[in-house]
Amino acid sequence: MDRLDAMSVLVAVVEAGSLSAASRRLGTPLATVSRKVSELEEHLKSRLLNRSSRRMTLTDAGRSYVAACRRIIEEDRGDEGGIRPSRLPAIRLARLPARRRSVTRTRASADGST
Questions:
Q1: Full-model pTM
Q2: Residue 43's domain is classified under what CATH number?
């Protein structure tokens, strides 16, 4: 489970007022939204939402957790802007294998263009 993603889904559910409204807003299937919230509750071993057929309300634990989620998500978004090149992993560019280059030359030679 990607916990940051699950936190974002939970916040979307709370802001939208229902699982189905959050599903539409996120462009994600309702079953996925429901599963992510359930997995988060299971991970925390605490119920975050009281669900009924008509209403959804936050539990006390849910209110505290959503407030923490909002802070974490905001910090995560803020960190992206402050990335310095020294903090990024080194990226190696792949080179084409020699065999591939020779095949390309052979095809060009067959056309008579070389």
A1: 0.67
A2: 1.10.10.10
